[in-house]
Amino acid sequence: QVQLAESGGGLVQPGGSLRLSCTASGFSFSDAKMGWYRQAPGKEREFVAGIHPNFDTYYAASVKGRFVISRDNAKNTVWLQMSNLKDEDTAVYYCTGGKLLENWGQGTQVTVSS
Predict the structure, then answer these.
(1) Distances in Å between the alpha carbon of 74 and those of 24, 77, 86, 111?
(2) What is the pLDDT of residues 49-61, one digit of tens each?
(3) How many CA atoms lie within 13 A of 89 on its CB side?
(4) Section 88-100 average pLDDT
């Protein structure tokens, strides 16, 4: 059974940091592309960051330089380190993974507010 379990969301002030974690099971993690998407209220889900099996990373322009995606294949875990958070980063963040990013987690809420 495929599972992607996100954690680490919460409330943070503008300029603050959070680290999201996603632990996967039920598929070959080391062969999988992994990524993070987000969905803000009233908006479509959008790509945030991705990391390929060869550890190449990709970022949306809106988060480049502020967010870092990383993975540990031994722990079946991918992280999203978010720094210098802005109000517009408020969203539900979803972990996704698989050869075609076909698996999704339930999401974790990130709220950036003073």
Answers:
(1) 11, 8, 32, 30
(2) 999 999 999 999 9
(3) 31
(4) 96
